[in-house]
């Protein structure tokens, strides 16, 4: 009996090793492979993004669809039909990944039933995906409006998860360079990366002043950019404090992320804003708008994919080293991130407002989008500073209690 168990365990370990070591095309042939399954789910998410874009920009031109029962409740005319379609596609995508979340959460070992369901059974899952994609188009607009309100919260959860994942990656990279193994031989590289990061941050801030605050009346943009510079200085000061001693690389990398969020926030301001420089052909769709839109969609898919496989940063205690038959990533967390990502791409495509019409080939445009980005920037700095200061506070409280 023991011999049979040992043989099955060794065969399972061998199959795991084969999956990890085999090349990508070999893994692609193996349809029941968790390493390749995540790319399939990412492809499904990309298709949902493109379908939502088509629903927003092309659906309103199809007059036959306005006769559908679920689309008659549009409140502000045919312009909101596209936003309605985006929410319906988003809801279908959300339902699919939530079904996968409920059916795979807690999976810990390879070759068990839930692992095979996550990594295989693609024909069944395609049927489920088609059904949940059609289902929202049969619902009345009142339920879609309710989903749109809930999607605001879900998109916020996605932003928070992504934020923690990025900060955890930055801290991990800093700890890696600061470890005993690399501390001495990587000092030059650390200083070089930190210097480049701060240089890019300062150049970015100067360019934002030139492009988005060309006159003193642009008070809001001046405030956004200046406050970003203040936050960069604050993160650097706290990180270099003797009690924290987190080095100069970590705040430099965080500075890149913060400056990027500020730039995205100002870019999200609508074209009517007097402090946003637009070309004379801004109202026309040109190749730059198309490329920017495609890059934004791909960046969203990549960000969702990379966040979904990073469940370890949300573990509050150190776990034992993984065994060879452990799942390579948290399946439940992976699908939950994609479910919230479905709500997030809906908010980007409708500008966080279901009754706000958006121009073709645009994404994440509107004052609501701008303020969401700014709040996300401020929240990122708060979370980062808390991660630096929290260990010192807990240590001092523990010392006082003893």
UniProtKB/TrEMBL annotation:
Keywords: Membrane, Transmembrane, Transmembrane helix. Pfam families: Serinc (PF03348). It is a multi-pass membrane protein. The keyword Acetylation does not apply. The chain crosses the membrane at residues 35-55, 76-100, 120-139, 151-170, 190-212, 219-240, 246-266, 287-309, 329-353, 374-394. The keyword Transmembrane applies. It is found in: Membrane. One of its GO terms (cellular component) is membrane. Belongs to the TDE1 family. This is Serine incorporator. It comes from Glycine max (Soybean). The lineage of its organism: Eukaryota, Viridiplantae, Streptophyta, Embryophyta, Tracheophyta. The gene is LOC100788574.
């Amino acid at each position: 009996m023991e011999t049979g168990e040992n043989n099955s365990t060794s065969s399972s370990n061998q199959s795991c090793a084969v999956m990890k070591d085999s090349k990508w095309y070999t893994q692609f042939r193996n349809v029941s492979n968790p390493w390749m399954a995540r790319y399939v789910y990412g492809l499904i998410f990309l298709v949902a993004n493109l379908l939502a874009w088509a629903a927003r920009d092309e659906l309103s031109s199809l007059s036959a669809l306005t006769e559908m029962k679920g689309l008659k409740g549009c409140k502000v005319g045919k312009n909101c039909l596209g936003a309605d379609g985006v929410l319906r596609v988003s809801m279908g995508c959300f339902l699919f990944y939530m079904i996968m979340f409920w059916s795979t959460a807690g999976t810990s070992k390879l070759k068990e039933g839930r692992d095979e369901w996550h990594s295989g059974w693609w024909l069944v899952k395609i049927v489920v995906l088609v059904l949940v994609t059609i289902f929202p188009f049969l619902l009345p607009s009142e339920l879609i409006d309710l989903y749109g309100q809930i999607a605001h919260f879900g998109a916020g959860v996605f932003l928070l998860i992504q934020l923690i994942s990025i900060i955890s990656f930055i801290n991990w990279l800093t700890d890696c360079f600061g470890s005993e193994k690399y501390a001495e031989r990587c000092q030059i590289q650390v200083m070089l990366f930190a210097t480049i990061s701060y240089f890019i941050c300062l150049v970015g801030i100067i360019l934002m002043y030139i492009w988005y605050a060309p006159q003193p009346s642009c008070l809001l943009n001046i405030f956004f950019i200046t406050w970003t510079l203040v936050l960069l200085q604050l993160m650097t000061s706290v990180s270099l404090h003797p009690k924290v001693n987190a080095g100069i690389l970590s705040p430099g990398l965080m500075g890149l992320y913060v400056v990027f969020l500020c730039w995205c926030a100002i870019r999200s301001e609508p074209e009517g804003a007097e402090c946003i420089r637009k070309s004379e052909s801004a109202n026309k769709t040109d190749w730059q708008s198309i490329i920017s839109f495609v890059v934004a969609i791909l960046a969203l898919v990549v960000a969702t994919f990379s966040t979904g496989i990073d469940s370890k940063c949300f573990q509050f205690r150190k776990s034992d080293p993984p065994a060879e038959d452990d799942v390579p990533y948290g399946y439940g967390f992976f699908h939950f991130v994609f479910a919230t990502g479905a709500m997030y791409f809906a908010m980007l495509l409708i500008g966080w407002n279901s009754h706000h019409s958006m121009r073709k080939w645009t994404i994440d445009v509107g004052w609501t989008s701008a303020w969401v980005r700014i709040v996300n920037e401020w929240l990122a700095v708060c979370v980062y500073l808390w991660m630096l200061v929290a260990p010192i506070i807990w240590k001092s409280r523990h010392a006082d209690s003893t």
